[in-house]
Specification:
single chain; alpha+beta; 434 Repressor (Amino-terminal Domain); two-stranded antiparallel sheet; about 40% helix; about 15% strand
Length: about 80
Amino acid sequence: MIINIKIKELREQKGISLRELENLTGISRGRLADIENKKIQTDKILFVEMVVIAENLACSILDLYELTHLELKGIGEI
């Protein structure tokens, strides 16, 4: 399973800049940019950060994640 973070997509759909999200969440713009650009591993992002981001984007925390399946040769879909 591969977990993708969709913060940037949702933020842009709502017309919120990175600077605005920084002001709303209290999370630094640099950290937000690193999360959006996949410079931070998904398991290294704090749950509380995702809760605060979801709250300020007016969406469910589940909306911030996209799960895809990983297929390994000879094993099938996982």
